[in-house]
Amino acid sequence: MRTVALAILGYGPNAEDAVQDATAVALRRIGEVRDLDVLDLPTVTGPEEMAEQGALRDWVWHAIGALSEADRLVLLLRHFSSVTSYDQIANLCGLPVGTVRSRLSHGRRKLAEALRATTDVAYLDATALGESRWREAYDVLTTAMRGDFAEVVDDMWLPEARLVFAGQVLGGRETVVQAMDRDLDWGIRQRLLNVVASEDVLLWETELINPPGDPDHCPPSAVWLHEMRQGRVRKMTLFHPQPADVAKILPLERT
Q: Which residues contact 1 (CB under 8 A, 6 or more apart)?
């Protein structure tokens, strides 16, 4: 892989990044290998194959869970979300681009080490965790869309949790509820697109649906980055992968 990357990109960090990205993608999709249909032959996936694919996924997610929080966050964003460019990750995490690159490189090396070290260990059921977090996110957004967001924030957020947007700490639980209520009053709705979950990082990706009278009020999508502690939110960063008019979207005056 490195030889091919060097032939295409030449010597330098771009070739190294390409090799590391390809390896991480291969690991992320390792459970799909048996579903390849190279010769257009019919394939049948039985219970044993399904169990093996599930075990492979759990193995990879267990290894990701062994990374440091800093490395795990950038790795999850890069390979499991729509926030994939170095600039986007840097903006969302409040880091220099160079730091993002170094953390990704370090995280991939540690991931490879963790995979080698845990080949014969029983893992957390990553599929079940993902499905549980998806149902939770769907229920939260459904509750929020009917105007009862305060209920889930009281339950899901720690008392000292903070909301961050555009690099500013805007406030806590009351602030995020007020921001959601304001969006609802303006006719803005959200639809869940993707959920990425580990033990201490929870990522929601949503489609933003603007009111007919103001179709350009919000960008088309949003990312909710929840940093968790003991199953509850300690910090939530709101991010728009596409450029946003901060003056229009800024939820509330900084507190």
A: 19, 22, 23
Q: Judge residue 28's burial from the number of C-beta atoms within 10 Å of its C-beta, 0-12 exposed, 13-18 middle, 19 or more buried.
A: middle
The tens digit of pLDDT for each residue in 72-124 reads 999 899 888 889 899 999 999 999 999 999 999 898 888 888 887 876 665 66
Residues 6+ apart with CB under 8 A from 58: 123, 124, 125, 126, 127
Q: What is the dihedral of CA 208, 222, 60, 27, to 10 degrees?
A: 90
- C-alpha–C-alpha distance, residues 64 and 57, integer Å: 11
Domain that holds residue 208: 126-249
In this structure, what is the dihedral angle of CA atoms 72, 73, 74, 80, given to the nearest 10 degrees?
A: 90
Kindly state whether residues 211 and 164 are assigned to the same domain: yes
The CATH number given to whatever domain includes residue 228 is: 3.10.450.50
Q: What share of the chain is helix, strand, coil (3-state, %, to 5)?
A: 55, 20, 30
Task: Return d(Cα 218, Cα 220) in angstroms, integer.
Answer: 6
137 and 42 part of one domain: no
pLDDT in tens, 186-209: 999 999 999 988 888 999 999 999
